Each structure stands twice: as structure tokens, then as C-alpha cells.
Amino acid sequence: MKRILVTGGAGFLGSHLCERLLNDGHEVISLDNYFTGQKRNIVHLMDNKFFEVIRHDVTMPFFIEVDEIYNLACPASPVHYQYNGIKTVKTSVMGAINMLGLAKRIKAKVLQASTSEVYGDPQVHPQTESYWGHVNPIGIRSCYDEGKRVAETLFMNYYHQNDVRIKIIRIFNTYGPRMHPNDGRVVSNFIIQALKNQNITIFGDGSQTRSFQYVDDLVNGMIKMMATGDDFVGPVNIGNPGEFTIKELAENIIGMTGSKSKLEFHPLPSDDPLQRKPDITLAKEKLNWEPTINLEEGLSKTITFFDKLLKENG
Ligand code: NAD
Ligand code: UDP
Fold first, then answer.
1. Tell me, which fold does domain 3-179+213-241+277-293 have in CATH?
2. Is the CB of 98 under 6 A from ligand 1?
3. Which residues are the active-site residues?
4. Residue 297 class from Cβ within 10 Å (0-12 exposed, 13-18 middle, 19+ buried)?
5. For 276-313, how does the pLDDT look when each residue is reduced to its tens digit (9 = 90+)?
6. Ligand 2 midpoint to CA 174 (Å)
7. Fewest CB atoms within 10 Å of the CB: 13, 147, 266, 293?
8. Strand 174-175, strand 165-171: pairing
């Protein structure tokens, strides 16, 4: 049994990770400031005597004795990370410094939830870890993209200078139950719109692509990455290489929900990446990992979740 700290533990991904780690028999501590996370995401875990919940902001130092740290604290959807861009940068950068300092002091392993956004609007397709990216440093997405890039830099420097046991994963668009209904991400938006028979809001002409990964596949990848030896630090892409246009995603969701929704086109936000697809050769080789849940199966579970949520909330 390990003692494991999950920052951002009350968020969409963090809550799934806490649940899986508890099921695997570990002691888990969730640290969260509830900016985008919610207690309802973890309330079902609170009866577990090996689960502890702490309200704290990662921009402030935090001391605890643990074996492993998963650093997920950071708003992840454009609506939320652009709400207070300065705070987003601070969360990524100060959060990384605080968690790396903690890991150094207690000799814990620390895993950074980085992102495919470090590739920006990529000019290499699919994206391999060796690609340096194409990020606008002063655009509306930069508080998130550059914050995450600096966090990677800090992780590598603590590794080289201080021998901290680091792991970096670059997560590609992930979806599933417990996504925040108001966070504006495409999968949750389209499912909610379809279930309510409202127009589906497509930004741009819908020809931009994304590769959607179901949350359980990601959690497997995270745990496999944490379990690798100290000589493998990443970064490693964790995503599903199945690539879909946003219009295809909308049509799939309309079909699966039997919705009467129509497509409604809106202007494309600036710096919105035109294509995104992970090359997962490295994850296959080093982690023996690849996703197992296809889009239809994952969407079906996610639709069931939002259908229940909407019925509960009238
Ligand atoms: P989320 O918004 O649901 O979760 C983030 C959690 O961090 C929330 O619970 C929030 O309250 C908490 N948080 C935010 N700022 C904090 C702070 N200053 N101190 C303490 N807690 C704070 O988002 P998510 O989708 O679960 O993303 C989790 C992590 O994974 C993020 O770091 C994100 O960048 C990364 N990621 C997610 C995706 C994705 O598709 N979901 C893709 C790439 C990377
Ligand atoms: N998008 C859309 N309609 C929406 C929400 C998002 O067409 O209601 C588009 C968005 O412009 C982007 C893609 O879907 O091209 C994915 O958006 P999301 O915010 O989910 O993730 P990210 O852009 O960070 O990959």
C-alpha cells in the first residue's frame, strides 16, 4: 500500500484517478481548491477510511509525507483557464514548483499532467514527443499552454539538477463521466445540447480535428507511467489516435442520442488548433499501453452520465 497525493483530486480526471488508486488498495489524499472541481465528484469515495480530502491551493506551499504525487491541479477547459489567465499561469508554475520542492524533500515520485496543448497549433501531424510545438506566446490560450510548457521545464530541471524522480505525460483530449457540464468542452457541450434537442454549436466549419480518449484509458496510462523505473521520465503522449473532425463528432452524438438537434456554426476562437492526433509509439514501447475504448463505447457511457445528470437536475 502506497500513500499517494493527487492534486486536482476533485476534478474530472483527478476523481477517476483517486477512485482507481483506492480500488488498487492505496491510501489517497485529494488536494483541491474547488475552482473547477466539485465535492460531488468524490463524495462516493468519502466513506473509504483510506481517502482523505484537503482544501488547499497549489500555488501555496504544502507539506505531507507521501510516496507518490500526481500533479493535476489546473483548470483544463478554455472557458475556465481563460477566466483568470494570471491565476492559470500561477497554478501551473507555482504548483509545479511547490510539488517538485515537496517531492525533492520527501524523495517522492512526482507525475506532471501535461497536455497536447504544448504542441499548440501543430505543424507536424501526428504529434510525436520530439516535436517542439507551435504556440502563440501572447494569445488567448497561452496562459494555459505556456504555463504547462514552463511546468515541463521545471520538471526537467529538478530532474537534472536535484535528481527528483519525475514523470511527464502529455494528455490528449479526454472525456467521460464527471466532466463539468459548464466547462464548455466539445464533448460535454455537444452531448448536453443533443440531449436537450438544442442546436449543436460548431466553432468554425467543423473541419478541425481532435483525438478523443476515454478517461479509463488515460488513468491506466497514468498509473503505468508512474510505475516505470526512474530512468524513464518522458514526456510521453497519452491519447487515443482515432482522429475525428468536430463535425463528425457532432453527427455521431446526434445519431447516438436520437436527437433532433441541428448544427449551428459560430466563429472559430483564435489560436484554436486545426488538427491534433497523438503518435503513441513511445507509450506502446515504454509502458506497454494503448487505449482500448473506442469513441462509440466511450460516448455511450458519457451520454448515460449526462442523461442521468440532466434528469436529476430537472
Ligand atoms: P478539471 O478542471 O476538472 O480539474 C482540475 C482540478 O484542479 C479541479 O478540481 C480544480 O478545482 C483544481 N484546481 C485548479 N486550480 C487549482 C489550484 N490553484 N489549487 C488546487 N486545485 C486547483 O480538469 P481535468 O480535465 O480533470 O484536468 C486535470 C489535469 O489534466 C489538468 O492539469 C489538465 O491540464 C490536464 N489535462 C486534461 C486534459 C483533458 O482533456 N481533460 C487534457 C490535457 C491535460
Ligand atoms: N468546439 C466546438 N463547439 C463547442 C466547443 C468546442 O466546435 O461547443 C470546438 C473547439 O473550437 C475546438 C474543439 O471543439 O476546435 C475542441 O474544443 P475543446 O474546448 O473541447 O478542447 P481543446 O480546444 O482544448 O482541444
1. Rossmann fold (3.40.50)
2. no
3. 144
4. exposed
5. 999 999 999 999 999 999 999 999 999 999 999 999 98
6. 12
7. 266
8. unpaired
Q: Per residue in 190-239, pLDDT tens?
A: 999 999 999 999 999 999 999 999 999 999 999 999 999 999 999 999 99
| Ligand nearest to the CA of residue 91, numbered in listed order | 1
Determine if the pTM surpasses 0.90. yes
Residue nearest to atom 16 of ligand 2 (CA): 186
Whether residue 203 has its Cβ less than 6 Å from ligand 2: yes
| CB-ligand 2 contact for 272 (6 Å cutoff) | yes
Residue 58: CB within 6 Å of ligand 1? yes
Give residue limits of the domains in the chain. 3-179+213-241+277-293
Which amino acid makes up residue 162?
N
State phi, psi for 273 to the nearest 5 degrees: -60, 140
Quote the ligand 2 centre to 254 CA distance (angstroms): 17
Of 166, 52, 16, nearest to 99 by C-alpha is 166
